[in-house]
Design a protein that fits this description.
The protein is of the alpha+beta class. The C terminus is likely disordered. A 4-stranded antiparallel β-sheet has the order 1-2-3-4. The chain folds into 2 domains: 137 residues, no CATH class; 98 residues, no CATH class. The relative contact order is 0.11.
């Protein structure tokens, strides 16, 4: 059983108060000010870097599963902010792995909200579902394909590249301070039917929601890029994730073969 005294919140206070707040919400989910205090103790500037936050995930899963739609959404939203930071903060993995079913519950609840969403809300809640499924990197990546820019190094010559997906085009380039994007090479989009895993799932969600911009952007993000400096071609999404994922990524939640289910 968790000892809240061994955890701390973002204020540096003992996690005991977090446990008290979760218990109160379980009994009285509409208690005035309790949600706000809980959020203030667990998240700062949209991130969680405290042990009490990761320890709170099972309690948030219970609140999400048993509460009204309003309280479900609030619990899922708060839990998603916490889980997204797993990509950067891994010193409390043991607290997350202690109850993997909590994240599986949150994953199912997050997925169930998707048919209700459209536009920016769809992207945000889609990323919540990605985070709970273990795709913490992709949950933190912007998917605004009206004007998206990603930066990475060529896996072959290490040239610094910019990947543009949006209204300005779909290409890789070298960004020059004076001349803008030079050495441009068009991206090769994936064929939707050939997408697999996360790409297939996100594209399917976008298509079902009628979001052609998101669906189209995903085909480019999960397609192939060419380096304008050395001419090498590479799988864009695979390399983007590999270059930005820690050496021991967290994988406590949904088995890899089931992550897009």
């Amino acid at each position: 059983m968790l000892d809240w005294r061994s955890t701390w919140d973002v204020r540096g206070d003992s996690g005991v108060r977090v446990g008290v707040l979760l218990g109160r919400l379980a009994r009285q989910p509409d208690a005035v000010g309790v949600w706000a205090e809980l959020e203030d103790r667990l998240v700062v500037v949209g991130e969680c870097c405290c042990s009490a936050g990761f320890a709170a995930l099972p309690g948030l899963a219970r609140l999400a599963r048993c509460g009204t739609t309003e309280h479900r959404d609030r619990a899922v939203d708060l839990a998603a902010l916490i889980v997204r930071t797993l990509h950067r903060y891994d010193e409390h993995d043991d607290l997350v792995r202690a109850d993997p079913q909590a994240l599986a519950v949150l994953h199912r609840l997050a997925q169930a909200r998707l048919p209700e969403c459209a536009g920016p809300e769809l992207v945000r809640r889609l990323q919540d579902a990605l985070a709970f499924a273990g795709y913490t990197f992709w949950a933190s990546v912007s998917l605004d394909f009206t004007d998206e820019h990603y930066h990475l190094h060529c896996p072959h010559c290490a040239a610094r590249l910019v990947i543009v997906i949006g209204g300005y085009g779909h290409y890789s380039a070298v960004r020059d301070h004076d001349d803008g994007d030079i050495h441009r090479v068009p991206l090769a989009p994936a064929i939707p039917e050939d997408l697999t895993g996360i790409g297939r799932w996100v594209h399917g969600v976008a298509t079902a929601a009628g979001d052609a911009t998101l669906a189209g952007g995903i085909t480019y993000l999960f397609g192939r890029a060419t380096c304008g400096m050395c001419g090498s071609r590479f799988d864009l999404a695979d390399w983007f994730e590999a270059e930005n994922t820690p050496g021991q990524p967290i994988d406590p939640i949904v088995p890899r073969t089931d992550r897009s289910a």
